[in-house]
Amino acid sequence: MKKLPVILFAFLFTVILFQSCTPTASTGLPPATGAVNELLIVTNDKTQWESELGDTLRNFFAASQDGLPQPEPIFDLLNVADENFTDIFQKFHAIIMIDINPDAAGTTSETKQDVWATPQRVIKVTAKDLPSFYTEFETKKASFMKLFVDLERQRTLTINQLALDYQLTETVKQKFGISLPFPEGFYVAKETHNFMWLRHTLVKAKQDVELGIMLYYTDYKDTVVFNPKHILKWRNLITLEHIPGPSPLSYMVVAQEDIPPIFDTITDFPGGYAVETRGLWKVENDFMGGPFINYTAIDRANNRVLTLDGYIYFPNQDKKSYLRQLEAIFFAAEFPQQ
Fold first, then answer.
1. Hey, is 331 helix, strand or coil?
2. Which of the residues in the chain have pLDDT under 50?
3. Is the peptide bond before 119 cis (omega within 30 degrees of 0)?
């Protein structure tokens, strides 16, 4: 795509959030600290963290994020031992505590919100011994991950609300019937009767970042719209028509050669159901590329299939935090009531 002019409005996406100690009025708790996608793990001691227990936690929470061109962990992990878990660490927004205690009555998993700060998610797993912990963690780890990912989206949405572009949000609502919380900096690059392309550039020292969002719909006729091959074909048709590259005869397509797209069924998406697609895009007849995330959902009130698609262009740099920002916008969508 053609390079955008420099935009001087900086997104608040990758900043460390809420470092102030001023209590939040609604809860009386201090604002939570910690960077985007940062998870604090509390163990009984450092030896546990350096052992198989630590490997188990790292292999799961720091596994590579799906749909990125370079390996990036889902969460950046920090570790502290019980004895050092003081006030400064208790204000972290995402905390999982592992307590291997021979005197424990049994194996339990507890999850609480806003214990020492807000917004905050604290999970504590207590087990009599390591085998009991491994069994419990294997059973519950997917739900733990979801709670922490949901928290990251919540925090990002809070940041977005501080610089919300109300006019653009209303423009999209009038056209598509859904409300999306766009931060300042996005603008409409192209629009047709059933399609809109929004772009935003973040100015960085080494390399500018482009975030793009495509919204498009068609009448809902058959469940084939959720078939992975159909989703990719439809996206390629849209980008062929609407997303030109920087050189003649160049255009965006899904890149499937090296890392095939990954599909997932999302049952808690706004509106109730969606198919999530994570993959890579490239520019045919050029050298640009990056990750994208796509949600194909049913707009029941209007009996149509609506696609919310976001992409990132940030070559040779980490992209997962920007991917999380796009997720947050999409998961905050408000669909019309049926």
1. helix
2. 2-21
3. yes
